[in-house]
Structure formats: C-alpha cells, structure tokens
Automatic annotation (TrEMBL):
<feature type="domain" description="Sin">
    <location>
        <begin position="66"/>
        <end position="104"/>
    </location>
</feature>
<keyword id="KW-0238">DNA-binding</keyword>
<dbReference type="Pfam" id="PF01381">
    <property type="entry name" value="HTH_3"/>
</dbReference>
<dbReference type="InterPro" id="IPR036281">
    <property type="entry name" value="SinR/SinI_dimer_dom_sf"/>
</dbReference>
<dbReference type="InterPro" id="IPR050807">
    <property type="entry name" value="TransReg_Diox_bact_type"/>
</dbReference>
<dbReference type="Pfam" id="PF08671">
    <property type="entry name" value="SinI"/>
</dbReference>
<dbReference type="InterPro" id="IPR001387">
    <property type="entry name" value="Cro/C1-type_HTH"/>
</dbReference>
<dbReference type="InterPro" id="IPR010981">
    <property type="entry name" value="SinR/SinI_dimer_dom"/>
</dbReference>
<protein>
    <submittedName>
        <fullName>Helix-turn-helix domain-containing protein</fullName>
    </submittedName>
</protein>
<dbReference type="InterPro" id="IPR010982">
    <property type="entry name" value="Lambda_DNA-bd_dom_sf"/>
</dbReference>
<feature type="domain" description="HTH cro/C1-type">
    <location>
        <begin position="6"/>
        <end position="61"/>
    </location>
</feature>
Amino acid sequence: MMQNRIKQLRKLRGYSINELSMKAGISKSYLSYIERGIQKNPSLHILSKLANSLGTTVEDLLEENQNPEMNVKHLDEEWIELFTEAVKQGITKEDFSLYLDFIKFTRLQ
C-alpha cells in the first residue's frame, strides 16, 4: 500500500518523519497521517512532493503489486536500519562493495 511504500522509502533514505516533511514541504502531522493510513487519498501534488523528496516517482509510490523478488528496493526493517546506520557512519557504496568483495574472498579460502 502507498503508506507502507512511503515509510519504507523514508527509512531507506535515513529520513525521520520531520526531515521528510521539511524536504517535501508538507506538515509532519499530515505525513504521519499518510504513513499511518489515516489520510488515504493525498493529492497528486502532495504525492509528487513526496516522490521528488524520496528520489522516486508517483507511480512507484502508488504501485501496489510490487514483487519483492523483482524489486531490489524491498528491504525489511532490520536491513533498512543497518544501511541507515552505515550511511550515518560515513560508509560509502564503494566501501560497502569492497567489504562484500572481502567477505566473498575470505569465504573462498
């Protein structure tokens, strides 16, 4: 559902509700209502602001039948928290890639 997708992307990007509301230019309480499913029909203007702030499209936010196996963006809460913490600690994509290569190498030994 749309509210789950917005919350998932917000956490994946490492944004608090307050940070995303500021980036999108909407109130924190309105964003909270959307994420909790209280506000079920936000306008396209609001969805566009959220999509732009999350680096995605309105279509992506509204997509209901996303197949987790086909969607690399689908992560459970624990993965999102781990990635968020890694980004906060300054780990780059390159660092992470090198770490994965190291793990693969050590497992072959």
